[in-house]
Automatic annotation (TrEMBL):
<comment type="subunit">
    <text>Heterodimer composed of CysD, the smaller subunit, and CysN.</text>
</comment>
<dbReference type="InterPro" id="IPR044138">
    <property type="entry name" value="CysN_II"/>
</dbReference>
<dbReference type="InterPro" id="IPR041757">
    <property type="entry name" value="CysN_GTP-bd"/>
</dbReference>
<comment type="similarity">
    <text>Belongs to the TRAFAC class translation factor GTPase superfamily. Classic translation factor GTPase family. CysN/NodQ subfamily.</text>
</comment>
<comment type="function">
    <text>With CysD forms the ATP sulfurylase (ATPS) that catalyzes the adenylation of sulfate producing adenosine 5'-phosphosulfate (APS) and diphosphate, the first enzymatic step in sulfur assimilation pathway. APS synthesis involves the formation of a high-energy phosphoric-sulfuric acid anhydride bond driven by GTP hydrolysis by CysN coupled to ATP hydrolysis by CysD.</text>
</comment>
<dbReference type="GO" id="GO:0000103">
    <property type="term" value="P:sulfate assimilation"/>
</dbReference>
<dbReference type="InterPro" id="IPR009001">
    <property type="entry name" value="Transl_elong_EF1A/Init_IF2_C"/>
</dbReference>
<keyword id="KW-0342">GTP-binding</keyword>
<dbReference type="GO" id="GO:0005524">
    <property type="term" value="F:ATP binding"/>
</dbReference>
<dbReference type="Pfam" id="PF00009">
    <property type="entry name" value="GTP_EFTU"/>
</dbReference>
<feature type="binding site">
    <location>
        <begin position="142"/>
        <end position="145"/>
    </location>
    <ligand>
        <name>GTP</name>
    </ligand>
</feature>
<dbReference type="InterPro" id="IPR009000">
    <property type="entry name" value="Transl_B-barrel_sf"/>
</dbReference>
<dbReference type="GO" id="GO:0003924">
    <property type="term" value="F:GTPase activity"/>
</dbReference>
<dbReference type="InterPro" id="IPR005225">
    <property type="entry name" value="Small_GTP-bd"/>
</dbReference>
<dbReference type="InterPro" id="IPR044139">
    <property type="entry name" value="CysN_NoDQ_III"/>
</dbReference>
<feature type="binding site">
    <location>
        <begin position="10"/>
        <end position="17"/>
    </location>
    <ligand>
        <name>GTP</name>
    </ligand>
</feature>
<protein>
    <recommendedName>
        <fullName>Sulfate adenylyltransferase subunit 1</fullName>
        <ecNumber>2.7.7.4</ecNumber>
    </recommendedName>
</protein>
């Protein structure tokens, strides 16, 4: 059974937490004691209905303010698929949290209040999901019950958003009218909107095609750990040498010819081992151990790829950065640690080309630095070569994080635009 990771985003009071609560409740993914606690809290607050948003608003500060602050992960499953939900905050001051939640998502749901229409925040969320290359975008027009389930209002919002999305790189865009509070078109089709002939939100989540979203062409295997059992009681394991890691792209099979970087040496895969035993093939995002036919000096941070399909070997990078530190700013001459796949190196910011206004998409080329939650394009110089792809081609080998050398705090997330 495959897993769909999806992120939700929306402005304050768009009903995001209620929608997730409704998905969990209607798909029978919550325990009785959880439901009782939510019902009790709803009564204490004086609400006439069970407030399902309380299922997801976990932090006490969130419950008291009625807003989502942190990224909350929720898990549920149906007979068709398993799901991981990243419930991300809508406020502009939590842009970094949304970037974190959406960076690994296969799909993003942007909620829009049917009464308010497409807001500045809606545009920002849509832009961030396309910047992060989330392959599928669902625009859920919520609170349809408050506009009398008006088809005309839904079409207005769809038209307005479609014209805005033309400026973005949104490969798959779906519009669904819903009422999270009453469950219309969330898990099952709504009788209140006979004019809508599409699928419910859960049906769409169960059936959206994600297998081809991952890069199955470019073989990329960053080595995370070299396995040499030193005290093996089994004589067959005395000479065992395996290279463990997560497949970041392509398909690997025993017998395949592969190249090791940085040495450039070519060998073949002898076998592919997993926790459950040997497998005939491995693909992203499987975690496996490769055994090679020849003894090559391989260590953590090295890359295994195809001889005729190699990543860029680069020390100069052009990248879009989302700055996440509220203590320091990012500007020219800033020194940082860069973590890319399994390789760590030191990096210097050579230039800040522009700061991007995520609401208007305007490029401010006069910007001197990036502050908390700001996004811009920078040039980086790395102390040692990295094995990279453009983020648009492979999100795993095209993304990286920046770490403050003095505090070891993660201060930035980057997407490679070009490697030199």
């Amino acid at each position: 059974m495959d897993i769909l990771r999806f992120a939700t985003a929306g402005s304050v009071d768009d009903g995001k937490s209620t929608l997730i609560g409704r998905l969990l409740f209607d798909s029978k993914a919550i325990f009785e004691d959880q439901l009782e606690a939510v019902e009790r809290t709803s009564r204490d607050r004086g609400t006439e209905y069970t407030d399902l948003s309380l299922l997801t608003d976990g932090l006490r500060a969130e419950r008291e303010q009625g807003i989502t602050i942190d990224v909350a992960y929720r898990y549920f499953a149906t007979p068709k698929r398993k799901f991981i939900i990243a419930d991300t905050p809508g406020h502009i001051q939590y842009t970094r949290n949304m970037v974190t939640g959406a960076s690994t998502a296969d799909l993003a749901i942007v909620l829009i209040d049917a009464r308010k229409g497409v807001l500045e925040q809606s545009r920002r969320h849509a832009f961030l999901t396309t910047l992060l290359r989330v392959p599928h975008l669902v625009l859920a027009v919520n609170k349809m019950d408050l506009v009398d389930y008006s088809q005309e209002r839904f079409e207005e919002i769809r038209e307005e958003f479609t014209s805005f999305a033309a400026k973005l790189n949104a490969p798959d865009l779906t519009f669904i009218p819903i009422s999270a509070l009453h469950g219309d078109n969330v898990v099952s089709r709504s009788e209140s909107m006979p004019w809508y002939n599409g699928s419910s939100l859960l049906h769409h989540l169960e059936h959206v095609h994600i297998a081809s979203d991952r890069n199955l062409v470019d073989v990329r295997f960053p080595v995370q750990y070299v396995i040499r059992p030193q005290r093996a009681t089994d004589p067959a394991l005395h000479d065992y040498r395996g290279y463990a890691g997560q497949v970041a792209g392509g398909v690997l099979k025993p017998g395949d010819e592969v190249m090791h970087l940085p040495s450039g040496l070519i060998t073949r895969i002898a076998s592919i081992d997993t926790f459950d035993g040997p497998v005939d093939e491995a693909f992203a995002p499987m975690s496996v151990t490769l055994r090679l036919e020849d003894d090559i000096d391989i260590s953590r941070g090295d890359m295994i790829c195809r001889p005729n399909n190699q990543p860029h070997v680069a020390q100069e990078l052009e990248a879009m950065i989302c700055w996440m530190s509220d203590v320091t700013k990012l500007g020219p001459r800033t020194k940082l640690t860069i973590k890319h796949t399994t390789r760590t190196a030191r990096a210097l910011v050579r230039d800040l080309h522009y700061r991007l206004d995520v609401n208007t998409l305007h490029r401010d080329e006069s910007a001197q630095s990036l502050g908390l939650n700001e996004i811009g394009r920078v040039s980086l110089r790395i102390t040692q070569p990295l094995f990279v792809d453009d983020y648009a081609r492979n999100r795993l080998t095209g993304g990286f994080i920046l770490v403050d050398e003095s505090t070891s705090n993660t201060v930035g997330a980057g997407m490679i635009v070009e490697a030199k």
